[in-house]
Amino acid sequence: MAKYTKLEEKISAMENRTNLVEILQFAQKEFSYLSSETLQKISELTNIPLTQIFSVASYYRKFRLNPVGKHIIKICEGMSCYVNGAAKIKQAVLSHLKIKENEMSKDKYYSVEKSFCLGCCTQSPIMMINDKIYSKLTPDAVGEILDKFRANH
């Protein structure tokens, strides 16, 4: 299948075809998430049992098993952000987008994920949209930030 040509080439070129984390990272970068079809294809190409592949993919938080929106919002829930109102920020984001955590907006524009410590503790609470960090947030500011981001992207 042409969809998996790059994945097949990647695995064929690998010296160690059992380096599952590297294969899963490549596949997620290629397809934005790891579908059951993709995991099955990896199993066929590597002769690694599907159950083992799924175990690795579901163990690490960095791997996504569900589709994601075009832009990913990460809300820091590290200790500093937590004590400075991360829960209120998360609720404001979810409420503005009319979704639940780990869902994507109906138009597939945004996905929301929680994250543990994004490394900006002195600027808490924070959220990140793709690679852009928004700091010292208030629940009232969230809607405006999301609307401006959408207008500019």
Question: What features would you describe in this structure?
Answer:
With 153 residues, this protein is of the alpha+beta class. It is 48% helix and 12% strand. It has seven helices and four strands. Strands 2-1-3-4 form a four-stranded mixed β-sheet, covered by helices on one side. A hairpin with a 2-residue loop joins strand 3 (127-129) and strand 4 (132-134). Helix 1 (5-13) packs antiparallel against helix 2 (20-31) and helix 6 (86-97) crosses helix 7.
Short synopsis of the structure:
With 153 residues, the chain is an alpha+beta fold. 48% of the residues lie in helices and 12% in strands. The protein has seven helices and four strands, in the order ααααβααβββα.
Q: Give the biggest sheet.
A: 4 strands, mixed
Number of helical elements: 7
Rounded radius of gyration (Å)? 18 Å
What coarse outline follows from CA principal-axis ratios? elongated
Average pLDDT, to the nearest integer?
93
| Beta-strand segment tally | 4
Helix content: 40-55%
Structural class, please? alpha+beta
Strand coverage percent: 5-15%
Give the strand order of the largest sheet, numbering strands 1, 2, ... along the chain. 2-1-3-4
Order of helices and strands: HHHHEHHEEEH
> Segments where pLDDT lies below 50 for 5+ residues?
none
End-to-end Cα distance: 33 Å
